[in-house]
Design brief:
Organism: Echeneis naucrates
GO molecular function: DNA binding
Subunit structure: The SWAP complex consists of NPM1, NCL, PARP1 and SWAP70.
Order of helices and strands: HHHHHHEHHEHHEEEEEEEHHEEH
Protein name: Switch-associated protein 70
Radius of gyration: 60 Å
Largest sheet: 7 strands, antiparallel
InterPro entries: EF-hand-dom_pair, EF-hand_SWAP70_N, PH-like_dom_sf, PH_domain, PH_SWAP70
Strand order of the largest sheet: 6-5-4-3-9-8-7
Length: about 575
């Protein structure tokens, strides 16, 4: 998961590049566009109503950065997933801000290299706004860039540049940093392609977490053939592509805490073989030489060990250690300055104290001489004053003795009065107890009466409730009785109708039986007559009687039917009509 501090830095540049009104605030429409773009590149489902709901109290007015940060944290940064494309995210923020702050036409680096320098600045800058990069991080980046380009690091040149930085608060903004890289102050003698390759390699290491990359031979899992692949090692994975263009990714090996990497002896004419063992698969890889093999094994073991210890990527750990070192140095410098200030303040205080003590000693000496003179003068006055005080004390003592005698007699009278008042108080207490007992008895009697009244009211309510229930039961019984009588009458009417209908059906059945007998006799007579005619017609010749076609005969509950299907349908129709007429007459 990407740290929130690293995601906020590009967003801060994108936000500060938005147009401001005369009050220095950003309109809501611009924030909608920014939020939609952030959700798109970070693969977060965008809620178009959330921004309106968040700022519904300020529907028409502009919004400040303080008002947008809670929305950004709640609806975007809290939903960030690890699998989004961080390069596309940085690219979007870069496009929004760079044209308003810098022109790259006069620089030695292209726009894409400037974008990568911008990303590296955001990674190395301090977590304070506005964002700046300190001289220690500038030196770290330049050393890594020079080492990547295969050049030598010039300590004297950077020392001179560091003196120039001290006039600028010992730090640079991102646009100043891009100008320094584009002016070629530290890359003199290098062509643009070499500088671009160096920036790209540092970008891949710091921003894309690429710890190592190169061509290796990998053994296939199905065909068991050896194929050359371009491998890229990251803190938690090892990806391999068809070539270094990184277009066609053939697979990815996820490194976990239980993974391990081991060197294998040479076999089948293959040398420099090592194996990566994971939970579900094992990968055999061949390096170009022993040095490359050892470097890859060491790099992969370092990644696995970092995963087991729960550490960040190596360059993030290094950045954290550098920041901690700077913080300790700043703290030590602050403590040293504070101690110097305290020592200087203490020294000045001591000087002031010594001067004050000298002045006090001179004043004390003058005061002592003056006090001695005053003491001699006042000693005589005190003696006279003491004599007068003794005489006055004698007179006061006599007056006090007289007053004590008078107060003693008044005290005896006061004690007698107190005794009388105590006796009266006891009598009043007894009377008060009697009155309190009488009130308690009266209160108990009143409560008893109230309880009896409540019980009587409760019983009366119960009796009224019982009376009402009896009345409801009686009314319900009466209505049920009426319903039963009506139902009985309806059933009797239906029974009478059924009896009449049954009698009619019986009458019809008897008529049908009689008709069947008559027709049976008629058919028998007709058959006999027909036979006689045939015999007479053929002059006595006798022919065999063959069975003829006979239609299926209807069978009823009482045997073969005495009428045809057409007659049966006519009878059903007449019976239905008579039934409908009876219903109409009854209604």
């Amino acid at each position: 998961m990407w740290p929130r501090e690293e995601l906020l830095k590009p967003i801060w540049y994108a936000f500060t590049a938005l147009d401001l009104d005369h009050r220095g605030k950003v309109s809501k429409s611009q924030l909608k566009v920014l939020s939609h773009n952030l959700c798109t590149v970070m693969q977060i489902p965008h809620d178009p109503v959330a921004l309106e709901e968040h700022f519904k109290a300020d529907d028409q007015g502009p919004l400040s950065n303080d008002g947008y940060m809670p929305y950004l944290n709640k609806f975007i940064l809290d939903k960030v997933r690890e699998d989004f494309n961080v390069v596309e995210f940085n690219k979007m923020c870069w496009i929004l801000c760079y044209k308003k702050n810098i022109c790259t036409k006069g620089l030695l680096i292209k726009d894409d290299d400037a974008f990568k320098v911008w990303c590296i600045f955001n990674f190395l800058s301090e977590d304070k706004y506005p964002l700046v990069i300190v001289s220690e991080e500038i030196e770290y980046f330049l050393r890594k860039l020079v080492d990547t380009m295969g050049s030598e690091w010039s300590e004297d040149k950077f020392a001179d540049y560091k003196l120039q930085l001290q006039a600028k608060r010992n730090c640079l903004t991102v646009w100043e940093f891009i100008e320094v890289m584009g002016m070629g102050y530290f890359s003199k003698g290098m062509n643009r392609q070499t500088l671009s390759l160096g920036i790209n390699e540092v970008f891949q290491e710091l921003i894309l977490d690429v710890l190592k990359q190169g061509y290796l031979l990998k053994k296939g899992h199905k065909r068991k053939n050896w194929t050359e692949r371009w491998f890229i090692l990251k803190p938690n994975s090892l990806s391999y592509f068809v070539n270094e263009d990184l277009v066609d990714e053939k697979g990815k090996i996820y490194l976990e805490q239980n993974c391990c990497v081991e060197s294998l002896p040479d076999k089948d004419g293959k040398k420099c073989i090592f194996i990566i063992k994971c939970t579900d698969k094992t990968y055999e890889i061949i390096a170009s030489d022993k040095k490359t093999k050892q470097e890859w094994i060491q790099a992969i073991q370092t990644c696995i060990q970092s995963l087991r210890l729960g550490l960040l990527s190596p360059h993030r750990e290094a950045r954290l250690r550098r920041r901690e070192l700077r913080q300790r140095q700043h703290a030590e410098e602050d403590q040293l300055v504070e101690k110097m200030r305290q020592l200087q303040a203490a020294n000045e205080k001591k000087q002031r104290q010594l001067e004050a003590m000298r002045e006090k000693m001179e004043e004390a000496t003058a005061k002592a001489a003056l006090e001695e003179l005053r003491r001699k003068r006042t000693q005589v006055d005190l003696q006279d004053r003491y004599r007068l005080d003794l005489e006055r004390e004698k007179m006061v003592r006599q007056q006090m003795e007289e007053q004590v005698a008078q107060k003693s007699s008044e005290l005896e009278q006061y004690f007698q009065r107190v005794q009388e008042l105590e006796n009266m108080y006891h009598r009043l207490e007894e009377a008060l107890d009697d009155e309190r007992q009488a009130k308690q008895d009266e209160e108990a009697m009143r409560k008893l009466q109230a309880r009896l009244l409540e019980e009587e009211a409760t019983k009366r309510a119960e009796l009224e409730q019982i009376h009402l229930q009896q009345q409801r039961v009686l009314s319900q019984t009466e209505s049920e009785k009426q319903e039963l009588v009506a139902e009985q009458l309806a059933k009797e009417r239906e029974l009478q109708k059924a009896i009449l209908q049954l009698e009619k059906l019986e009458h019809e059945r008897q008529g049908a039986v009689e008709q069947y007998e008559v027709r049976k006799l008629e058919r028998a007579a007709n058959k006999t007559k027909t036979w006689k005619d045939k015999v007479a017609r053929h002059e006595g010749l006798v022919h065999l009687i063959h069975p003829g076609h006979k239609a299926p005969q209807r069978i009823t509950n009482w045997g073969p039917a005495s009428f045809t299907d057409i007659e049966l349908e006519m009878r059903k129709k007449s019976w239905q009509e008579s039934k409908n007429q009876r219903k109409e007459t009854e209604t």
